[in-house]
Amino acid sequence: MKKKLTCNNFIKLLGPKTKKINPRPKVLSLKKFKKYQIEKIEYSVEKNERIKGYLLTPLINKEKLPLIICHHQHASNYMQAKSEIAGIKGNKNLHYGKELAEKGFATFVPDAIAFEDRNFLKKNWWGVEYYELVSRIIKGKTLLEKTLSDLSMALDFLVKKRIIDKNKVGFIGHSYGARMAVFFPAYDKRIKASVSNCWCLNYKNSLKKKFKTRIPMEMVVPNILGYCDYGDIVKLVNPCHLLISVAKKDKWSRDAKEIYKYAKNKFKNSELILKIWPGDHRFSKEMRNKAYKFLIEKLKN
User: Fold this and answer.
1) 156-178: b or e for each residue (b if 16 or more CB lie within 10 Å)?
2) pLDDT surpassing 80 at residue 4
3) Which of 73, 74, 90, 204 is deepest in the core (most CB within 10 A)?
4) Is the peptide bond before 185 cis (omega within 30 degrees of 0)?
5) Would you give the DSSP letter of residue 48?
6) In what order do the strands lie in the sheet with 49-58?
7) Looking at domain 7-299, does it have CATH number 1.10.540.10?
8) Is the dihedral of CA 292, 167, 51, 26 positive or negative?
9) Domains in the chain: boundaries
């Protein structure tokens, strides 16, 4: 029998918490485009660890801006992360950080550990992420706690910016980012609306070899099935509004209907929406427009 999951014991399950420090953000560069600008910002997430992210803001704004944290995909591409979401390179269907800035949001696009600027080998190899996982597990820590802590550290300095409305913070992500779009609002209650695109799968079903899916490295938490499954994490997202957007033929989203039915009654103070699209694992223009409409409705109207 599973133990009752709460936000507090979920956080305890992740292992020792990373010590909070002053992020001390520093703008490294600024580049202006037709509708928005990009600041490259360096900031601290731990003692002796400074990382970089992109802050995109509309050029024309007369009031405080809602902020969206935009998380990158995985796709075993360890050399391309935040730059793709910021619209600097890569798949145009994943330029949602750029597109949301063009729609009047401030967006922040970081690298998860092991990706792009945080890939210490500077080569496209899964062993980089494996190292970040096992070097923590053997010390009683988890990669998931580190990933969530890093996102929270970014939010600590972003909400203090004069142009940001700290009461209107959202999250969006595809694939790897879709998982974080569930885990992070459960971990940090400053998120008010979140979009999870193309990942909705219970741990127990990830163990079924015939589907050729796996448990992602950042989701490896000792004894997590003794407490919960992914659907229980979805329940913890309340009172944040959550849009689960999935594709019908996507093997990584095959539990979406089950999880939605399991979690929907928990969203008494917010809204849980499931949208199922035709096709496979992707973030098409139509899917993105639905996501943007959701974020506008929850954070701008």
Assistant:
1) bbbeebeebbeebbbbbbbbbbb
2) no
3) 73
4) no
5) T
6) 26-32, 36-46, 49-58, 106-110, 65-71, 164-174, 193-197, 241-247, 272-277
7) no
8) positive
9) 7-299
Identity of residue 202:
N
**What stretch of H or E contains 226?**
none
58-67, 112-121, 144-153, 285-294: lowest mean pLDDT where? Answer: 58-67
**pLDDT over 60 at 1, yes or no:** no
Name, in order, each residue with C-beta under 8 angstroms of 244's C-beta and a sequence gap of 6 or more.
Answer: 196, 200, 234, 256, 259, 260, 272, 273, 274, 275
Angstrom distance (rounded) from CA 130 to CA 250:
25
Structure tokens at 79: 């050399």
Alpha helices, DSSP H, located in the chain: 7-13, 82-85, 96-102, 127-137, 143-158, 176-187, 203-206, 230-236, 256-263, 285-299
Residue 228 backbone dihedrals phi, psi, to 5 degrees: -165, 175
3-state helix, strand, coil in the chain (%, to 5): 35, 25, 40
Residue 112 CB neighbour total at 10 angstroms: 25
| Amino acid type, 38 | I
The residue behind tokens 């600041």 is 39
